[in-house]
Design goal:
Elements: H1 5-18, H2 28-52, H3 68-83, E1 87-97, E2 102-104, E3 109-124, E4 132-137, E5 148-151, E6 165-167, E7 174-179, E8 191-194, H4 200-208, H5 233-244, E9 248-260, E10 268-277, H6 279-290, E11 296-297, H7 300-308, E12 313-314, E13 316-317, E14 328-330, E15 333-335, E16 343-344, E17 348-349, H8 351-355, H9 358-363, E18 371-377, H10 381-396, E19 401-407, E20 410-411, H11 428-435, H12 437-446, E21 454-455, H13 461-480, H14 495-516, H15 520-545, H16 554-569, H17 574-585, H18 607-622, E22 631-636, H19 646-655, E23 658-664, E24 672-677, E25 680-684, H20 688-717, H21 721-724, H22 727-751
Parallel strand pairs: 5-7, 11-19, 18-19, 20-21, 22-23
Antiparallel strand pairs: 1-2, 1-10, 3-4, 3-9, 5-8, 6-7, 10-12, 13-17, 14-15, 14-16, 22-25, 24-25
Protein name: Valine--tRNA ligase
EC number: 6.1.1.9
GO molecular function: aminoacyl-tRNA deacylase activity; ATP binding; valine-tRNA ligase activity
Length: about 750
């Protein structure tokens, strides 16, 4: 469990504010007690959620990033890094939260588009009273820290100005006009002021051109330069327009403003003395190791880019809640051991620092290290995953895991990221109370694709709620059949039972590879389709009708099949699976193992009959054929070696009150001809009026087939679908195209 540094402290300070208090009203010990009390209350709430969500977690093995053992390990790693010269202290530009008064990470910065102002300010040349260059800025209060004006070297408007000097308004300080190809000629006037102390892009530009760094104001937002020294920068911003007079022009402008995700304050790029880790160096080692390892990642190119572009990491925070940095300071001197006049640093480590060591804290020294698989959100690939990788190489010369599966984010129905500011978050416990935990689990599993976001709305849970309802009905029916033994012999099964058993075994085999590739959505989709269509809509419906199709122990096979289905769906919807198994067998499902299933005889295939069953039910309604109306049929078969005999077919045809005339190798015209599956068709001999209605219906079917084929072809040929999509999905699309095309060709040849 993570101590959530800034987040938790902000929450506690917010609670204090409700009481009319602030952090400064408490002693350090009192404030720390508040922090720990909050942690204890909400840690228990999290454990409660784990239990309600039926997560199989060994809660007795829980660990915490601020436990004594965790802190001790983190501190030892810090000291090792410090001794190896990989941690240093420096004054650099960081994201500064002026309310919390701490550096924050990029992950804690939000960007909001807002209406703002663009200030056009004239900088007069040092050697001229009338000539000037105009620049555009959204932050006029920073002009006192300008160190240069930059233009693009290809901008012909300013070629003659390059190398000359201009004076900063109000203070008269002369600064040079320089060139850099990164300058956007189309922004503002095309001339840009450079203020390295208060802008990240300017900071990099300043380093590139070896420019000085000058501060306009301090971390409290108090101006340092005359004529406004001692005033708040926001007040100065208002006064500047009046004081600059005719040399300034103001225009409306829309821009992105950075805010702290934690406090809501506007984030300031600020020069501050902080502790840094040489992540760039560590990441390089990780990249080199990766070339020789078999690490599997959902998005290897993005991870590789992060490691290649890694910059040094600001690991210090100015907070109370966290692991104190174990360094003693006096001025610019620092040491791991106390020295004369020194004091221990008041800073704490960034939460991500301890999180980057989590695999070692929890698993090192045990049988599970390195870990086989890490499942993580794609949004923290940089902040967490990449850092765990290079820390693993540094500490153990190996990656802490072999596979990295990245899932997407849960977005709201408008595809916006969920946040407190938008008040669009969802509580999984509230959802579970409304829909049931099984429905919630099934929804998320059904919509989990590698790196793909989930667009959430309650309406989308209805589909899964209906599936659970269908399962409950199936469970009740199966229990009503009183399956006594829940066992069977393959030799005693009828054709329908052989078919559903074969379908089940094929599904179970395919699930193994899907689990190995973390294809959770396809696992859920295949299981739901099998249960809904094959088992419930076909097998169970025919089971209810097949009085004339007996097997030695029909009820035993039915009970067996249901038990195996419950074992299969248990990871997806454990509550239902457990209860249904208990109702049928009087014992817990979680203690049962998978049954051994013998080989099935080759060549048995009645899937055509099940396809026909579905189609016939639909057509019977369209043509208004009474259920008990006797109908003569002829079955068109692919060849004379077809497996089933008349005697085997008769019991099944009896279900529909069909009378088999013959098996034929050729189809007739002028009849109702129903496509079953493969090369098998069933001819129904009906009166002419119904044949004509059917022929009209077939034209509609053909239109739908053409439309579906066009869609499937577009999907198959879209982008990199064949290479990037799971093999199972590509095969499924190709099989549908082949099946639909064969059906279309057949109907076209018969009905035109």
């Amino acid at each position: 469990m993570d101590h959530a540094g800034i987040s938790l402290q902000v929450k506690v300070e917010s609670e204090l504010k409700k009481e009319g208090l602030s952090k400064s009203d408490l002693t350090k010990e009192e404030f720390l007690k508040r922090l720990w009390d909050w942690k204890d209350i909400h840690a228990e709430r999290i454990r409660s959620q784990y239990r309600k969500l039926n997560l199989l977690l060994p809660l007795e093995e829980e660990n915490f990033t601020l436990s004594p053992e965790s802190q001790s390990f983190v501190i030892e790693v810090f000291k090792k890094l410090y001794r190896d010269g990989l941690i240093y202290r420096d004054e650099r530009l960081v994201n500064w939260d002026p309310i919390l008064r701490t550096a924050i990470s990029d992950a804690e910065v939000l960007y909001k588009q807002e209406n703002s102002k663009l200030y056009y300010i004239k900088y007069f040349f040092e050697d001229s009273e009338s000539e000037y260059i105009s620049i555009a800025t959204t932050r006029p209060e920073t002009i006192f820290a300008d160190v240069a004006i930059f233009v693009n070297p290809e901008d012909e408007r300013y070629c003659s100005y390059i190398g000359r000097r201009v004076r900063i308004p109000l203070i008269g300080k002369a600064i040079p006009i320089l060139t850099d190809p990164s300058i956007d000629k189309d922004f503002g006037t095309g001339a840009m002021k450079c203020t390295p102390a208060h802008d990240f892009a300017d900071y990099e530009l300043g380093k590139k051109h070896s420019l000085d760094i000058v501060k306009a104001y301090d971390v409290e937002g108090i101006m340092l330069s005359e004529p406004y020294a001692g005033l708040d920068k926001e007040e100065v911003k208002k006064r500047l327009v009046e004081d600059l007079g005719e040399i300034v022009k103001v225009a409306d402008y829309v821009t992105n403003i950075t805010y702290s995700d934690r406090s809501g304050a506007k984030v300031e790029p600020m020069l501050s003395k902080q502790w840094f880790l040489k992540s760039s160096q560590l990441a390089k080692r990780a990249l080199e190791f990766w070339e020789k390892s078999e690490l599997k990642v959902t998005n290897p190119s993005r991870l590789r880019r992060y490691l290649q572009d890694m910059e040094d990491w600001c690991i210090s925070r100015q907070l109370e809640w966290g692991i104190k940095i174990p360094v003693f300071l006096k001025g610019d001197k620092h040491s791991l051991e106390p020295f004369s006049g020194s004091k221990q640093s008041e800073d704490v480590l960034d939460t991500w620092f301890s999180s980057s060591l989590w695999p070692q804290i929890v698993f090192k020294g045990g049988k599970m290290f390195p870990i086989s698989t890490l499942i993580s959100g794609k949004d923290i690939l940089f902040f967490w995953v990449s850092r765990m990788l290079f820390m693993g190489i540094y500490l153990d010369n190996c990656f802490p895991f072999q596979n990295i599966y990245l899932h997407g984010l849960v977005l709201d129905s408008k595809n916006r990221k969920m946040s407190k500011s938008l008040n669009n978050g969802i509580d999984p416990i509230e959802l579970s109370e409304e829909f049931g935990i099984d429905v919630v689990r099934l929804f998320f599993l059904s919509n989990t694709h590698p790196e793909s976001n989930i667009s959430f709305s309650k309406n989308k849970l209805e589909k899964h709620s209906k599936f659970l309802h269908k399962l409950r009905n199936a469970s009740a029916f199966i229990k009503s059949q009183n399956p006594s033994s829940c066992s069977f012999k393959v030799g005693d099964l009828n054709l329908l039972e052989l078919w559903i058993l074969k379908e089940f075994l094929n599904l179970r085999d395919s699930l193994n590879s899907l689990y190995e590739s973390f294809s959770f959505s396809f696992i859920a989709e295949n299981i739901v389709n099998f249960i809904w269509d094959s088992f419930c809509n076909k097998y169970l419906e025919l089971y209810k009708l097949m009085n004339g199709v007996e097997s030695v122990n029909t009820e035993g096979f039915l009970g067996f099949m249901w038990n195996e289905i419950l074992k299969m769906i248990w990871p997806l919807i454990p509550n239902f699976a457990e209860q249904s198994y208990l109702d049928l067998n009087g014992k817990a499902l979680s203690n049962q193992s998978e049954e051994y299933l013998p080989e099935l005889p080759e060549g048995v295939n009645v899937s055509w009959f099940l396809e026909y069953f579905n189609t016939y039910i639909s057509i019977r309604k369209k043509l208004e054929i009474p259920w008990n109306s006797p109908i003569k049929v002829r079955i068109v078969i692919p060849n004379e070696s077809w497996k089933l005999s008349n005697a085997e077919l008769l019991p099944y045809l009896k279900i529909f009150n069909h009378e088999l005339v013959e098996l034929s190798l050729e189809a007739s015209k002028g009849v109702v001809l129903i496509f079953a599956a493969g090369d098998i068709f069933v001819e129904l001999f009906l009166e002419e009026e119904k044949v004509l209605r059917y022929q009209s219906y077939i034209q509609e079917v053909k239109k739908k087939l053409v439309s579906e084929l066009e869609f499937l072809h577009r999907r198959l040929n879209a982008g990199d679908f064949k290479n990037m999509a799971p093999k199972e999905l590509v095969n499924e699309v190709q099989e549908k195209i082949e099946r639909y095309q064969k059906e279309l060709d057949f109907y076209t040849s018969i009905y035109g």
